[in-house]
Design goal:
The chain is of the alpha/beta class. Helices cover 18% and strands 31% of the residues. The protein is built from five helices and ten strands, in the order ββααβαββαβαββββ. The structure holds NADP nicotinamide-adenine-dinucleotide phosphate.
Amino acid sequence: MDMTHGKPWTGRVFIGVSLDGFIARSDGDIGWLTDPPQRQHASINSSHQAESWETFFPSVDHVVMGRGTYEKVSTFEEWPYTGKKVLVLSATMAGQDDRVSVVRTLDEATDALSQGDARQVYIDGGQVIQAFLRHGLIDELTVSHAPVLIGSGIPLFGVLAHDVHLTLRATHAHNGMVHTTYDVTTSCPTDKRN
Ligand SMILES: NC(=O)c1ccc[n+]([C@@H]2O[C@H](COP(=O)([O-])OP(=O)(O)OC[C@H]3O[C@@H](n4cnc5c(N)ncnc54)[C@H](OP(=O)(O)O)[C@@H]3O)[C@@H](O)[C@H]2O)c1
């Protein structure tokens, strides 16, 4: 059993973000990420490649996302998570969707993961990633920076009670996106701001 940070599953983030730190515009638009203008970007390879969607997605068995991300994904033509168990974190969601299980609190989410067969868990959505980070539940972060500044929107990261230290595992650049994978090394509860 892969016991990571005292739990039987590994919490993993894989997310695209503007260089100024936003995962969507304020109205939820992600066209700047999914349909960028073509330019001549440098390609940079490192001896270790960061996780890509092709390596990351097949390796996860569960997905935990916030209601905001669920609502966006529900507008896609195809449900992208076939074969994965999907938990949606929401205190307010009322509708029934057989493709997902709704969990009402972070504790309910982690209990469901730990009591079930979760091993590799994809954590998605800005607020949810921030909540999992604050509780030391993220073990790996892959962040893909898009070559654009959008000025405002929904932030990827937020306030923390203490520093979260990361170890760089790999990075590469492709089509102007800089992909970087980090391991979360420690949260430091002795930090001054705790
Ligand atoms: N750039 C990318 O790669 C990427 C990836 C994912 C998502 N996105 C975009 O990001 C946007 C959504 O991000 P977001 O930060 O607004 O939302 P989110 O984290 O997906 O969802 C936020 C909602 O999740 C629920 N939630 C979060 N933490 C909770 C907790 N501890 N306990 C109970 N419920 C909790 C709340 O729902 P209730 O209000 O119902 O309680 C909250 O309103 C969408 O536009 C999506 O397209 C972009």
